[in-house]
Design brief:
Helices cover 76% and strands 0% of the residues. 51% of the residues are buried.
């Protein structure tokens, strides 16, 4: 169908409203007038900020009636990929809640920690964080489990606390980026209409070299502390097993709904057999897990509605016109997607939200410059995870710093994986 819309930069006002409200309030409550017991970027809900942006989008474009705008929103939310994404969020939440209640996350961490060779504590923590985050699909959950252990490692070995904690944060972002059940992967793949295994195959070529080089750096830097091992950790192999099965099945390319369904069933049975779960507690845990996904789901619906209205009003065309004047090649288009995603993450301090906002525009840029959707999905996920793991006001660094009793800024110089991943993304783009 011929596109007769004219570029209209004013149609992007809803995003500006969101950024002013959310970024402005986040900076204010984080650095100017902190609220006791609350992280600054979570004082005003992201849902409220997007709600104001949606109201702005509805007020614009007076050539359309209210009912016509509702119809446009419905078409945006009703896209097949958005619906699939919402369903996967629900199942991933149920799986995560059940796994945590069963004790699977702690047993998985302890199993691997108990088998780290002496002198390999810090690179070992990085590797464990990679695997657990890939299995759990959450960097924040991995950080919560492993940072208290990292604190003890640093104290026992007389090592720099920020250095050891940064290893956990880096590994957590590696897993978050590559996990097929993380909300970032779900958002990146479904918005671009690609299979998770295809995005994984593209992603691993960039992320794995950065991870291997990080392990080498961590090993060299911690070499002088060789001989300082970890304590003995209690674990149950059977409670850790479902995570490894889910990870292996996901990597085979099996449908994510089936993978998550198998994971839920395994934790239900094994948790019941070991007495860590009862039938009521299992269903309660699944409910808590899905509740934890509600904000992400609401944000997805709001952003889909706002994006549809902005696109209809010529906002996307204005962005594409801006890029066309400056980008002359496929590489420039890829760089544009990276910059867009980075700015969204820096502004929102939430990598999933950044992807959901950037994804519609990224899809348009991909079509314009002939970029394969799986590469676009990979760029969205990778770049959002890089900056989410670097910004000192993001949930990952704030939680890690809080658990370790240090400042989030002190961790930043040791985030080798994130910096290396950014370098490899640039190299990937330049080499085409």
């Amino acid at each position: 169908m011929m596109n007769n819309r004219k570029p209209n930069a004013a149609a992007l006002l809803p995003i500006l409203i969101f950024l002013v409200v959310y970024l402005g309030s986040g900076i204010y409550f984080e650095y100017i007038d902190p609220v006791e017991g609350r992280m600054g970027f979570y004082v005003i809900s992201v849902v409220v900020a997007f709600g104001l942006a949606l109201i702005t989008a509805f007020v614009q474009n007076r050539s359309l009636s209210f009912d016509e705008k509702i119809h446009i929103c419905a078409k945006g939310v009703g896209d097949d990929n958005i619906i699939i994404m919402l369903f996967i969020f629900l199942m991933a939440g149920a799986f995560s809640g059940l796994a945590n209640a069963a004790g699977g996350a702690q047993s998985t961490a302890n199993l691997m920690l108990d088998n780290i060779p002496d002198g390999f504590a810090v690179p070992g923590l990085f590797l464990i964080a990679c695997l657990i985050s890939m299995s759990m699909g959450t960097s924040v959950g991995t950080i919560t489990v492993l940072v208290p252990i990292a604190v003890e490692v640093a104290k026992n070995a007389g090592m720099s606390m920020p250095f050891v904690v940064a290893a956990v944060v880096g590994g957590s972002m590696f897993g978050d980026n590559l996990s097929v059940i993380s909300d970032t992967t779900i958002a990146a793949t479904r918005t671009q209409g690609v299979e998770m295994r295809d995005k994984f195959r593209v992603n691993i070529k960039v992320a794995l070299p950065a991870a291997l080089l990080t392990i080498l750096i961590l090993t060299v830097m911690s070499f002088r502390h060789s001989g300082t091992g970890l304590m003995h950790y209690e674990y149950t192999v059977w409670l850790a097993l479902p995570y490894f099965i889910v990870l292996i099945l996901a990597l085979t390319g099996m449908n994510v709904f089936i993978v998550l369904g198998i994971g839920i069933l395994l934790f239900f049975m094994i948790g019941g057999a070991y007495g860590t779960l009862s039938v009521p507690s299992a269903f309660a845990a699944m409910g808590d897990g899905t509740n934890g996904m509600f904000e992400t789901m609401i944000v997805t619906i709001l952003v889909a509605s706002i994006s549809a209205l902005m696109k209809e009003h010529g906002g996307f065309d204005a962005v594409l016109a801006f890029i066309r004047k400056r980008a002359r090649s496929r590489k420039s288009g890829m760089a544009g997607i990276c910059l867009l995603t980075a700015l969204m993450d820096i502004s929102t301090a939430n990598n999933t939200v950044a992807i959901v906002i950037a994804a519609p525009l990224a899809k348009e840029i991909s079509a314009e410059y002939g970029i394969e959707p799986k590469k676009t999905a990979s760029l969205l996920d990778t770049v959002s995870c890089i900056f989410q793991g670097l910004i000192p006001y993001g949930a990952q660094l704030l939680i890690a710093a809080s658990l370790a009793g240090i400042s989030s800024i002190s961790i930043m110089p040791y985030l080798f994986y994130q910096f290396l991943l950014l370098v490899f993304v640039v190299i990937w783009i330049l080499l085409g």
